Structures are given as C-alpha cells and as structure tokens.
Amino acid sequence: MQKSKVDMSFSTNSHNYGQLQEIDRPFSEDVLLETVDSTQTYARREYKRQYYNQITFIRALHQTEGRGQFDRKWECQSKKNILTTIIFPFFTRIEQLKNVTSVVGYTIVKLYKELYNLNAQLKWMNDILINCQKSVGILVESEQIDNKYVLFVGIGINVNWCTQGATSLKENLGKEVDQNQLYLLLKERVIKALYDLNDFGFEYLRVRMNKILYKRGQLCEFVDSKTLQKVYSGILEGLNEQGDLVIRDKVNYQRAIVGLNVRLKV
C-alpha cells in the first residue's frame, strides 16, 4: 500500500466557485491499494482508525467485491479502470446531502468535456452515460459524527475496459486513456464541488446541470430501484431548486421525485 500527503486548498469566495486559493484547508492523503474487497467498504471500515477527520483518496487497482447502489456488483478488470472512494469529512448541510451524487456526476461530465471533448450525460441520479451507455457509476454514503457528515464518495470509471452493454473512454476515443491524468483532475474537481455545494448550496448549479440531464424533455418511465416495477411515467422536466427531479404527467400534474427508491428506466 502506498500513501502520500497532498495539499488541497480551495476557495470560499462566493464570486469564484471552486477557484484554487492559498487558504487554510486540511491536508489530504492518497492511498493506493493493489487489491481490496471494495474501496467503499474499506473506506468505511478504516475511517475512524486510519483516516479520521482528513480528506482521503483511496484508489484500488483491483476489487474483489466492488459494489454500486443497493449492493449491486461493480465489475472491473485489474488495472484497467479507476476505482476510488473519496472521504470528505467536513460536510455540514444536511439538506444538501441528497444532491452530492448528482453534483459529483455533473463534475465528471464537465471533466469528460474538458479532457476528451466527449458529450456525456447525467442519468439521474448516479450514472454517467455516453451515447446512452453507462460509463461511470457513483455511490455516495454518509455517516454523521458530531455536527458534521462524513461523505464516502465511491466512483467507478470505465477507462480502458467495460462490461457488455456499458462503454468506456477507450471505446469512445479509440485509444488507451491515461488513467493518472484523469485521476489527478478528478480528485481536485470533486473536492472543489463538495466544498462549493456545502458552502453555496445547489441552486447555482441547477441551470447548468439541467443542460446535461439525460432524457430531459422526453417521456420517461421510473421504476422501483429494487423490484424494477414501474411506479411513475411522465415528461422529465428537470431538477428544481432543491435538486429534486421533476416530472409532468399527462394531465400536467408535476411530481418531484426525491431519494433513491425510484430510478429512471433507460
């Protein structure tokens, strides 16, 4: 296991969201594991013992029991993809916890455009799609300690390999992708996004996030996340000021969908 200290300093200037500044922010730790059951499971298991009260980036080259939402298995070949959990122990806005997943997703969509000129979309609320195929999965879990929430942000990016039915960066770009370049920027941008969400709330991102929302303006079906049985259908209007997904049914009744119990059917 390799570890290194990384100095991460971020702005709290409300006029410059996410600009790097030399201000008092905590040091961070980088952890690289050759193999682990799951970066998410490891992070939660070891947080109080090894990484308490510090931002920590845990990356594995191989997972034996990688998991996504509802303990679904996340598959990956060794050393082909980015498998990481970011520990962020300084979140205080309980009303914004529900928006962490979608904000992290939006951050990655922007990164895809910046680095690779790829037009990815955010499938509410935890998948990133390229040409309607899954490229990234996000799993956010939290734990309250005193007056703060420790976020465990699990991210799996299909960089140079993917399962059947999904897609990878390599598949879309036609070449092997430098994982380290992507990972370095991913860490920086996700931490900036978490600080900004905690400091400024969701509203300042809403318009931009709605522009990259998968199936916005289209008739969609929503299913129970566990049983996959249909529960709603309607036109996907977009995200409201609170970060909830709004749909409109055939009699123009608007419904806000909150939480993880319902998912958008592809």
Quick tags:
single chain, 266 residues, alpha+beta, BirA Bifunctional Protein, domain 2, SH3 type barrels, 2 domains, 8-stranded mixed sheet, 24% helix, globular
CATH superfamily descriptor of the largest domain: Bira Bifunctional Protein, Domain 2
Helical stretch tally: 5
Q: How large a portion of the residues is in β-strands, by DSSP E?
A: 25-35%
By CATH reckoning, the class of the largest domain would read: Alpha Beta
Protein name: BPL/LPL catalytic domain-containing protein
Keywords: Ligase
Pfam families: BPL_LplA_LipB
Family: Belongs to the biotin--protein ligase family.
Can you put this structure into words, describing what you see?
- This protein has 266 residues and is α+β, with helices and mostly antiparallel strands.
- The chain has two domains: 2-211, BirA Bifunctional Protein, domain 2, CATH 3.30.930; 219-264, Roll (SH3 type barrels), CATH 2.30.30.
- Helix content is 24%, strand content 32%.
- It is built from five helices and 13 strands.
- The chain has helices spanning 39-50, 100-116, 169-173, 179-200, 203-211; strands spanning 2-7, 27-33, 55-60, 82-91, 121-123, 127-130, 133-145, 148-157, 219-224, 230-239, 245-248, 254-257, 262-264.
- An eight-stranded mixed beta sheet has the order 1-2-3-4-8-7-6-5, sandwiched between helices. Strands 12-11-10-9-13 form a five-stranded antiparallel beta sheet.
- A hairpin with a 2-residue loop joins strand 6 (127-130) and strand 7 (133-145).
- Helix 2 crosses helix 4 (179-200).
- It is globular and about 55 Å long.
- The protein starts with a strand and ends with a strand.
- Residues 4-24 have low confidence and may be disordered.
